[in-house]
Amino acid sequence: MKRIAPAPLTAQGVREAVDWAIMTRRSVRAFLPTPVSREEVEAILGVARFCATGVNMQPWRVHVVTGEAKDRLTKAIAAIHDDPDQDALLRDAYDYYPREWTSPYIDRRREVGWRLYSLLGIEKGDKVRMHGQFARNYRFFDAPVGLLFTIDRVLGQGSLIDYGMFLQTVMVAARARNLSTCPQAAFLKYHGVIAEMLGIPDDQMLVCGMSMGYADESAIENTLVSEREPVCTFTTFHQNATETTP
């Protein structure tokens, strides 16, 4: 498809299709074993590369793991995750979350977390089942495709903004193909293991991981849909020098 080309649908059809892909994107935590072809993954990345990027820097680097490569990686991470002594020695590649949580962010985090655990029948304080559920991150929630995203360490914060747009475009392009995703900061703690096993050089920093595949719609955890704040709570319209309308 050419970058400058007429829309393949009517204006309303395009709007509805794009809105559908964005609004129905959600973090899926159970996938079917149905394969996703390399060609499909390449097509998704081929669309995502056209996201906005400052002065055309294109800071993304993508490592796609499937089959035996994915199995080896997930087993190596799981072995450390299940060993408290080894796990305690590791630190995240960078601070994705705040070091000190405040409202309303801590409230939203707790709300979505306990909604998920409630769906799964995991009670507060059940550390064994919590550990087991969190460990599913490191199997990419059984998705057939795992993606790991890195960035050159020399790049600045602006490139992380570009990266966020790239990740969102990957997820929306996947959704347009009836695929689902789950972006995962959980992998950050194991950046050293990932780098060693995938041959990622030291000058690259892990940004996040992502599961990709077909959602298992029968899984109870996939009924979770997180709430979003209405536009009026985070938007201020400035109309002129003397009037501000919320």
Automatic annotation (TrEMBL):
<protein>
    <submittedName>
        <fullName>Nitrobenzoate reductase</fullName>
    </submittedName>
</protein>
<dbReference type="GO" id="GO:0016491">
    <property type="term" value="F:oxidoreductase activity"/>
</dbReference>
<dbReference type="InterPro" id="IPR000415">
    <property type="entry name" value="Nitroreductase-like"/>
</dbReference>
<dbReference type="Pfam" id="PF00881">
    <property type="entry name" value="Nitroreductase"/>
</dbReference>
<dbReference type="InterPro" id="IPR029479">
    <property type="entry name" value="Nitroreductase"/>
</dbReference>
<keyword id="KW-0288">FMN</keyword>
<feature type="domain" description="Nitroreductase">
    <location>
        <begin position="22"/>
        <end position="214"/>
    </location>
</feature>
<keyword id="KW-0285">Flavoprotein</keyword>
<keyword id="KW-0560">Oxidoreductase</keyword>
<comment type="similarity">
    <text>Belongs to the nitroreductase family.</text>
</comment>
